[in-house]
Amino acid sequence: MFWDSAALTLAAALVWCEEQPASETFVCLDRRLREAARREGFVLFSAD
Fold first, then answer.
1. Which domain holds residue 36?
2. How many degrees, rounded to 5, is the angle at CA 5 between CA 29 and CA 18?
């Protein structure tokens, strides 16, 4: 069930940025979803 909602979240983000994620920041606390977003090209928000 998790991956269904994670996939929808990532898909919605890709639609929102018109599949051009290179300059967009993705914020998420889930490690797996963050990694998937990174692989798609999103910039990840770092709390460091």
1. 2-44
2. 85
Position 2 scores a pLDDT of 55
For the chain, what is the domain count? 1
The DSSP line for the chain is -HHHHHHHHHHHHHHHTTT-GGG-EE--S-HHHHHHHHHHTPEEP---
Residue linked to tokens 């929102």: 16
Percent of the chain with pLDDT over 90: 67
